[in-house]
């Protein structure tokens, strides 16, 4: 089954053989034997391409599920003997502050050397859906106070508020506090429209009955910071994150907008790696 998945994903017997560290002739022999056993042809072969037949398309998701189940069984057996291994898939918002993520990942690798870590930046909605679907093990979210997340295990890591983030030379940077009305005419840098981070600042302005101009929709916090420092934009950012951003001034808002950073994982069948990681996060969480 692993060979079938490899061919389907690479589109090539040669590349699938290389991925599985076998010679192509051995892989071809095993596929032919499986097709005889099943009584169906799984692949259409030509000199130019290899593609799944209708039977192969039907077989593929079950093959993947069987391989996942076998991997989980091996990992659970190893965990019973004190060894955490497998692959841990982690998603994280770009503004996480509840943990020093590089330090957590380094400690995780030190404690569990057989565990493979795969981390990427994602938005909160994507991570919730992927943890529910079983394609992501861990998610670090940033959500507005009162937001309900169903179908996953979760732990609130920290409470924070949004704050105005400005260039030091900005005329409003000397103020002790700012209202959203004060910022209404400023060009904003913000997250893409569909992201949870963008929805938080949009909701704050909507509650205040204030309209604003989002001039720059960005997924990169480095570029956001550069626009702020250059005076081209202002932003509403989590205050803890903004406070650690070099070259900017952070001013609290009159209209408090509370958000939480939340850790989520599979509620029903967390892997040994996910269980170990959530315990590590609890131990190393930033005060």
TrEMBL record:
It comes from Arthrobacter woluwensis. InterPro entries: LysR_HTH_N, LysR_subst-bd, WH-like_DNA-bd_sf, WH_DNA-bd_sf. One of its GO terms (cellular component) is protein-DNA complex. Keywords: DNA-binding, Transcription, Transcription regulation. PROSITE patterns: HTH_LYSR. Belongs to the LysR transcriptional regulatory family. One of its GO terms (molecular function) is DNA binding. Residues 1-53 form the HTH lysR-type domain. It holds the Pfam family HTH_1. It comes from the Bacteria. The keyword Lyase does not apply. This is DNA-binding transcriptional regulator, LysR family. The lineage of its organism: Bacteria, Bacillati, Actinomycetota, Actinomycetes, Micrococcales.
């Amino acid at each position: 089954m692993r060979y079938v998945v490899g061919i389907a994903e690479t589109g090539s017997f040669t590349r699938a053989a290389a991925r599985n560290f076998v010679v192509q002739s051995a892989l071809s022999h095993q596929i032919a034997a499986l097709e005889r056993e099943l009584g169906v042809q799984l692949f259409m072969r030509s000199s130019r391409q290899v593609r799944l037949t209708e039977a192969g398309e039907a077989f593929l998701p079950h093959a993947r599920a069987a391989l996942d189940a076998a991997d989980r069984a091996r990992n659970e057996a190893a965990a019973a003997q004190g060894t955490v291994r497998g692959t841990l898939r982690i998603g994280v918002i770009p503004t996480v502050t509840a943990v020093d993520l590089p330090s957590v990942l380094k400690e995780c690798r030190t404690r569990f050397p057989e565990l493979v870590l795969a981390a990427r930046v994602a938005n909160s909605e994507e991570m919730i859906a992927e943890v529910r679907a079983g394609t992501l093990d861990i998610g670090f979210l940033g959500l507005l106070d009162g937001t309900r997340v169903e179908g996953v295990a979760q732990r609130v890591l920290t409470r924070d508020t949004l704050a105005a983030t400005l260039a030091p030379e900005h005329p409003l940077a000397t103020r002790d506090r700012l209202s959203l009305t004060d910022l209404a005419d400023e060009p904003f840098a913000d997250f893409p429209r569909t992201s949870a981070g963008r929805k938080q600042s949009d909701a704050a302005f909507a509650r205040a009955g204030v309209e604003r101009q989002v001039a720059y929709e960005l997924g990169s916090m480095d570029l956001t910071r550069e626009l702020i420092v250059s005076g081209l934009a202002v932003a509403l950012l989590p205050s803890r994150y903004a406070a650690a951003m070099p070259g900017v001034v952070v001013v609290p808002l009159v209209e408090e907008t509370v958000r939480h950073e939340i850790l989520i994982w599979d509620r029903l069948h967390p892997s040994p790696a996910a269980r170990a990681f959530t315990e590590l996060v609890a131990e190393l969480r930033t005060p």
